[in-house]
Amino acid sequence: MPDRDRYIPGVPCWADTSQPDPQAAADFYSRLFGWEIVDVMGADAPGTYLVGRIRGGDAGAVSSIPDGAPPAAMWNTYVWVESADDAAARAWEAHGTVITEPFDVGDAGRMAVIADTEGAVFCVWEAKQHRGAAIVNEHGSVNFNDLHTRDPEKAKAFYGTVFGWEVLELDGGGLVWTLPGYGDHLELDNPDLRKNMAAMGAPAGFEDVVATLVPIADDEPDIPHWGVTFAVDDADAAAQRAEELGATVIAPPADAPWVRLAVLRDPQGATFVASQFVPENKDMATAGSTAATAG
């Protein structure tokens, strides 16, 4: 799978989890995903930031809960932007809320925390030294960032304004976010990308996918939020191992279009999805899939 050292504006580039006990959470994810944990803050820092690495490349991170943030464990999505200030301004114009105004994170980058029109929270990241995840789409690394929304039309207007995203409907009924031109960027490192996708039966335009869009059904108690999906070699084994480590299996492994996945809650309450790529499932219908229940 590709190693990456940069992204383009409008692409999710990083994920970290805020945890009441970051050391315990880092132990859980290192044992589940095989991460090597590196403390990048030091003993005298006011907070904790533990980066999980695969083959020496950054894959995700565990942090203490920032001052003033809700005291709950959660996974956070970061989207690469040219300017955090400009992205925050566009979010205001699109009727979102800037929860935390743009600020510098040392020499790593500049960021802001934003809520969309339904309250789903995400971060924008203006990269300096920290260039986002170096390892993606392989066991233990981020595979997708997922917006769960009760109003897809409102979400389309908001994210279209802020990032230029469009929506692609898949044959099975699933919805994904696309960024026009992203496939051109990916083909700089993988010239056969479109040819290989076509050979697998991927729909036209799939090379531009940057995230998924999961409508929340009226009878579901879920609230709008951004979630994180991790690639795993074996969804059943990952669910079993997570449970052995103290996690809760919210939805057991089940087949869905292109994948077999499970919805898990870590020991401190942060929810995530473990997804195994299963190309034989490409023609399955989305309705009723586990993805729709991910919290």
Give a written overview of the molecule.
This protein is α+β, with helices and mostly antiparallel strands. The protein folds into two domains: 12-127, 2,3-Dihydroxybiphenyl 1,2-Dioxygenase, domain 1 (Roll); 142-293, 2,3-Dihydroxybiphenyl 1,2-Dioxygenase, domain 1. It contains six helices and 16 strands. An eight-stranded mixed sheet has the order 2-3-4-1-5-8-7-6, covered by helices on one side. The relative contact order is 0.16. The model is unreliable at 287-295 (pLDDT under 50).
How are the strands of the largest sheet arranged?
2-3-4-1-5-8-7-6
Instruction: Tell me, rounded to a whole number, the average pLDDT.
Output: 92
CATH architecture grouping of the largest domain: Roll
The CATH homologous superfamily name of the largest domain equals 2,3-Dihydroxybiphenyl 1,2-Dioxygenase, domain 1
Shape: globular
Using only C-alpha atoms, the radius of gyration works out to: 18 Å
- Estimate the strand proportion: 35-45%
Helix content: 10-25%
Residue windows where pLDDT falls under 50 for at least 5 positions = 287-295
Question: Could you give a short account of the major beta sheet?
Answer: 8 strands, mixed
Q: In terms of structural class, how would the helical and strand content be classed?
A: alpha+beta
Number of helices: 6
Number of domains: 2
Task: Report the top-level CATH class of the largest domain.
Answer: Alpha Beta
Assembly type of the chains comes to single chain
